[in-house]
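As the work plan foresaw, our protein records have gained a structure token line. A representative record is set out beneath this paragraph:
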Amino acid sequence: MDLTYEKCGDYLIPNLIPDPEGELRKFGLMRKSYLENHRRGIYSGLLLSGELKKHLLMIQEQAEERFDLLVEQMTKQEGVTEQLKAQDQMLWVRRMNNIRARAEEIVREEIIYCL
């Protein structure tokens, strides 16, 4: 990333606007928030080196893959199928919401809040 500078009085201030390389979604934004609030040094270092967006997109991709895998495994293990969806939609929704919440919690602990 090439840094550009804006002159403000006698000082050159770097323009730290990230490149639109990809869109940050849920897990990328969660990682950014975690770094901003709990790992300020890492956040500042990544921001100043221009690697923050790249890092967030990488973490986001890993987290989404892990989440999808966990949801798939849990649905198979617990027998949450399309047949159940056809028979009792509300039960299927409750189970899927439960599975997705547990998978998200695992992803947060394993990937988002990990250094």
